[in-house]
Amino acid sequence: MFSRRSAFAREPNALARATVHARARGQALIDLTLSNPTAAGLPYERERILRALADARALTHEPAPFGVEAAREAVAVELARDGLVVPADRVVLTASTSEAYAWAFQLLCDPGDAVMVPAPSYPLLEHLATLSGVRLVHYPLVYDGAWHVDAELLRRACSPDARAVVMVSPNNPTGSFTKTGELAAFAALGLPIISDEVFARYPAGDDPTRIRSALDTDRVLVLALSGLSKLAALPQLKLGWMAVGGPDVLVREALARLELIADSYLSVAAPVQHALPELLSATRSTTAALRHRIGENLGVLQRALAGSAVTPLHVEGGWYAVLRLPRTRSEESWVIELVERAGVLVQPGWFFDFPDEPYVVVSLLTPPAELEQGLGHLVQLVGRD
Ligand SMILES: Cc1ncc(COP(=O)(O)O)c(C=O)c1O
User: Fold this and answer.
1) CA dist., res. 34 & res. 46, Å (int)
2) What is the pLDDT of residue 384?
């Protein structure tokens, strides 16, 4: 009676069960998995945000498939802050980046087609693809002190039924940005690029070899995705966008088809669209505080793990850090022991499709004192070199 695509595994995994049991025992856990910026104790200009959402223009329904003009213009102006020239008529508003992915898959793929995605990467890609009837083909990111896309491995991973390649820059959870040479390798596949750039405003340092956006190439169709969720630390307002770039003839065709997809849903609510210019401006202090916290947490990480058997991998940006643990236990037993014996909750590498183990992922959104305490417990459990 039900579709195969909705038949997701629902059994709680061993880590989820251990976490529930620990909490039921009354054990206090230090949560190093925080991904919700609104729960991270960051400063928000609350009154300004609320006032922006009360704009009287939201009382009128304006059925514009790609969003109201002023909001699309606000996105174009925001992209220009990063040096990207995208006319507002190439900006498509969506109700989150997740929806932008779904529309991109519907635009480019028929059921059963494949999309190339990085491994390790954002776990939701699997669900979003499955729900659109699309199969994922993984290309590896390789680590040698920094993360890279290997052009040869990328080419070899490309299957004949691949209709698009996804790049995530910086990637979740590795934090790696796409570099200029890597973008050329993606473009050389000749496939449209779906580029997830939600963390682009969170670099951990400068690097002239990084691209600003996949929109830097005009060789193939590019759908560059971002939104308020990360860029303005407002995931609850459900506003994302795609900026469409590449050869004019492909851009025109993509926009014509996307208009029909968007018109079928008209999913972005009026209040957030009218509020957008003010929201982008009102959250600059919040995201500055967040960047400051991430920087502080990278220092905490170095200090807390120095001389221990836990190795932090190089972080170029984003909201997460990856730690390599000793191979003396499996990843699953490490993360369960961390909950049960150290009272620390982390994400295991297998959530993100790491090619080997054991890795864990910690959030750099965590208040620094908590991160320091949690890492202290982790080091105590794992031991010193
Ligand atoms: C790589 C990546 N893309 C997209 C999103 C989600 O964006 P949105 O809330 O706009 O759907 C996330 C959220 O964690 C993410 O990590």
Assistant:
1) 21
2) 63
Task: Return the structure tokens found at 233.
Answer: 């630390």
pLDDT 10s digits, 6-32:
999 899 999 999 999 999 999 999 999
Q: What pLDDT, in 10s, does the model give residues 222-260?
A: 999 999 999 999 999 999 999 999 999 999 999 999 999
The pTM is what?
A: 0.97
> Best mutation site among 34, 36, 93, 97 for ligand 1, i.e. most ligand atoms within 8 A of its Cβ?
97
Is 228 found in the same domain as 92? yes
How confident is the model over 82-97, as a mean pLDDT?
Answer: 97
Mutation choice for ligand 1 from 172, 242, 267, CB with most ligand atoms inside 8 A: 172
Question: What pLDDT sits at residue 383?
Answer: 82
Q: Is the pLDDT of residue 157 over 80?
A: yes
Domain residues for the domain of 275 are 56-282
- Averaged pLDDT for residues 334-351: 96
In this structure, the answer to whether residues 151 and 137 fall within a common structural domain is yes
Whether the bond between 120 and the residue before it is cis, its omega within 30 degrees of 0, is yes
Structural domains of the chain, count: 2
In a domain, 366, yes or no: yes
Q: How far is the CA of 198 from the centre of ligand 1 (A)?
A: 7
Strands 240-245 and 91-94: antiparallel
Does residue 6 form part of some domain? no
Q: Which of 92, 117, 122, 365 to mutate to test the pocket of ligand 1 (most atoms within 8 A of CB)?
A: 122
DSSP for 15-70 reads: HHHHHHHHHHTT---EE-----GGGTT----HHHHHHHTT-GGGGS----TT--HH
pLDDT score of 19: 96
Asked whether 86 lines ligand 1 (CB < 6 A), one says no
184 shares a domain with 261: yes
Domain boundary residue, one of 282, 313, 347: 282
CB of 168 sitting under 6 A from ligand 1: yes
Picking from 259, 282, 305, the residue at the C-terminal end of a domain is: 282
49 within domain boundaries: no
Tokens describing residue 279:
């929201």
Q: Do 205 and 312 sit in the same domain of this protein?
A: no
Which atom of ligand 1 is least distant from the CA of 171?
1
305 and 370 both lie in a single domain = yes
Please provide the average confidence, as pLDDT, over all residues in the chain: 97
DSSP class of 237: G
